[in-house]
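Quick one:
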Amino acid sequence: MPENILELKNVVYSFKTYGGNVKAVRDVSFEVRKGEILGIVGESGCGKSVTAQCIMRLNPEPPGFFEGGEILYKGQDVLKMNKKELRTFRGREIGFVFQDPMTSLNPTMRIGKQIEEVFRGHKEISKKERKQKALEILRLVGISDPEIRYRKYPHELSGGMKQRVMIAIALVSQPSVIICDEPTTSLDVTIEAQILELLLELRDKLGTSIIMITHDLGVIAKICDRVVVMYGGKIMERGNVDDIYYETAHPYTRGLMNSIARLDSEKKKELKPIEGTPPDLFSPPVGCPFAARCEYCMDICNEMPPAEYYFDEEHRTACWLQHPQAPETEFKRPVIKTEGGEE
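Output:
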């Protein structure tokens, strides 16, 4: 099994507001392995983007603050880094591709200069070398006529081209991990396919690990190796892609899949939404965060957080339906061990 390059251990992150503390990320743990693409999926407000930004400490502190946990990158705890160490870590070790290139790129700077910004403070790299590296990275991400694009402003490029530039900026220091926060949301399906193909090519060429944040299960199915399903700031289910799609063990995961259109669906079949609203993270539920919206909810789901049940070393879920005394449902699977609860 490939080595873990990044590990989150019991991360708890909240935002201080006038109305109280918003508990955005609650006891989240997962690992990213060398050369893999890990998908983090969930509906809006589930905590996936905040979790991703916690990795690089991009959330504003204050009002945000860590209540606990560790974020280990190659064994070093990111939460213990000082400002100088963080500047070196960001971009050089982990790159970030933001959701909307329209607002992420500086409209007053030429594309080439924005890529070269990454090398600011690197006195060992000459002006000529900076330009050469910028042109090389533009070619790597599939931008035609890089000499011409280098001199363009963002408004002179298409949406897909701008997103390629964002990926180029994330790649320019050859980081070990790239975090992509819904990089295809504002693109049409043709350009989306090109961007996803580009990310796969970059993974294969450079061996870069990728964290893909999305609410689109189609994107997850197309490029990810493993999947983490989040809801209410917690992880509901995790496993490889086949586990999540064909051996679904949590009602929330099934709800996400039932709410999207499928090619094999009948023409007049209506999509089935998940009824209800997400939990109030000012005062999160003490039990399972999905209990209020779950048709299989039992009394214990509202009273206690579920243990994490392992079906194998990759596939596991936090759901009381896996308990030996729970009623038989379509979600029940043979459990090999339990973590955080009864043995």
